[in-house]
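EI: anyone free to look at a 170-residue chain?
SC: sure, send it
EI:
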Amino acid sequence: MFHKTILLSLGLLTLAGCNAQKKTKASESTSVANSHMTQTKNPKQEGGIIYFNQGENKFLKEYDMNVTFKGISEDSRCPEGVNCIWAGVAIAQIEVMGTTTRPMVLELATMENAGRNYHQSLELFNGYTISLEEVSPFPKSDGGAKALEGKYKIGIKIHKVGDSPEPTRK
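SC: here you go
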């Protein structure tokens, strides 16, 4: 009888410990969700640049559009600590969808080079120009771009076609 009581007590303590962990994880995910909601309500918090982690999706009320950072299709930027002849380019795939349009995948580059069909800004979505302002982190010499898969973060700017964009701080 005594052994059954001890086993039952240990079982209840284990379940209580699991429940406490679930509550901690739920509160962490709620705080993360709240920080994303704050960013989406006022996307001009950081100099007009809206930041996305790879795979992240945000509905931007101000622009009536849903934006998803799908990933980086090419990253040939010169790794940190290495001397290169060409600085290289990173190309971000960004899916945009207005409230009344179908989704469209834009490929925005870190540099403008019409000869290679690299465009840093595109003026073609719902009367807005979308510009790629930042791609991080930079590749390292030891792992290259493959080591960064899933860890990328981008910053974009959106403005009405014809309006002059805010100056970029570099």
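EI: The radius of gyration is 22 Å.
SC: 👍
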